[in-house]
Amino acid sequence: MSYAKTGILLANLGTPDAPTPAAVKRYLRQFLSDRRVVDTPRLLWWPLLRGVILPIRSPRVAKLYQSVWMEEGSPLMVYSRRQQRALAARLDDVPVALGMSYGSPSLESAVDELISQDVEHIVVLPLYPQYSCSTVAAVWDELGRILQRKRSIPGISLIRDYADNRSYIDALANSVRASFARHGEPDLLLLSYHGIPQRYAEEGDVYPQRCRDTTRELVSALGVPPEKVMMPFQSRFGREPWLTPYTDETLKMLGEKGVKHIQVICPGFSSDCLETLEEIAVQNREFFLEAGGEKYEYIPALNDSADHIDMMLDLTAPYR
Fold first, then answer.
1. What is the pTM of this model?
2. Do residues 131 and 163 lie in contact, with contact meaning Cβ atoms separated by under 8 Å?
3. pLDDT by residue (tens digit) across 68-103?
């Protein structure tokens, strides 16, 4: 046990400050400018991003955000703040800060908040269960840039991921069981993960394997036959091939093949957000039902559930 005062930094992707085209444009500009997210040569990417993607995509995405915006703000921010408060309430003399890779509150503001409380050791918990260069590595890169500007830096422990952590798997399993109890057991359970370009995996990103690790452990914990579970990938962007099978195409195919009842969980999302509440719960539900399906339920993210906070305590315990 270290005698240095320890703080916890919960890190997530980020979200626009408001469901407006201007706010979405600011957020997307920062997000899509990160080389960890899009590694296209800048000479080609800047004109495309600034001249085509941002002007066209921002108003459209703003409308989608408006459809899921909560009274307290963006769902991802609302649930992330609740997670921060719930975790802090369970810890004595261990400050908990929240920082986002893009938008606000920034990772730098989170680091400064902890340092201002005399923290000498920061445990960084990126809330991405499965490591990817486009998520966890982006957090690490930004932390390096932040600390580069400081004369004195705290010790840093990075929790790289937790794809097969027992507390995480148990929390997912409990969530799925509760959905089965409420809606009946479906013909198929879909575990929909956020996609990445296939090329990233070919160049060494272990993300697909970590998704398979989560799927394997969750299927084992639930005791369901493997043939009743599928693992597609959602939220692809751009023209190059991403990880397959694609969630939207899979749901259309299943509806056309006569599958009647599906439930979908997104194990890669620690908080509900646009990609779960609109893309999965609304858009993909329509795809399945229009193709012939009859029942479709989205199983919410772990958000600020007690099981999820227990998991965070379990993950950070060795470093506190």
1. 0.95
2. yes
3. 999 999 999 999 999 999 999 999 999 999 999 999
The Cα-based distances of 177 to 19, 73, 166, 300 in angstroms read 34, 29, 16, 12
Question: Count of residues for the chain?
Answer: 320
In Å, what is the CA distance from 85 to each residue of 58, 95, 145, 309? 31, 10, 27, 10
The pLDDT score that the predictor gives to residue 238 is 87
The burial of 241, by beta-carbon neighbours within 10 Å (0-12 exposed, 13-18 middle, 19 or more buried), is given as exposed
DSSP string, the chain: ---S-EEEEEEE----SSSSHHHHHHHHHHHHT-TTT--S-HHHHHHHIIIIIHHHHHHHHHHHHHHH-BTTB-HHHHHHHHHHHHHHHT-SS--EEEEESSSSSBHHHHHHHHHTTT-SEEEEEES-SS--TTTHHHHHHHHHHHHHT-SS--EEEE----TT-HHHHHHHHHHHHHHHHHH---SEEEE-EE--BHHHHHTT--HHHHHHHHHHHHHHHHT--GGGEE--EE---SSS-BSSSBHHHHHHHHHHTT--EEEEE-TT-SS--HIIIIIIIIIIHHHHHHTT--EEEEEPP-TT-HHHHHHHHHHHGGG-
Whether the CB-CB separation of 269 and 308 falls below 8 Å is answered with no
The stretches in the chain having pLDDT less than 50 are 1
Q: Hey, CA dihedral for 127, 133, 138, 139, is it positive or negative?
A: positive
Which tokens sit at 211? 């998704």
* Lookup: tokens for 243: 């990880």
Which of 125, 122, 128, 114 is CA-nearest to residue 76? Answer: 128
Q: Please tell me the predicted confidence (pLDDT) of residue 3.
A: 65
Residue 13: per-residue pLDDT: 97
Q: Which one, of 312, 320, 318, lies nearest residue 10 by Cα?
A: 312
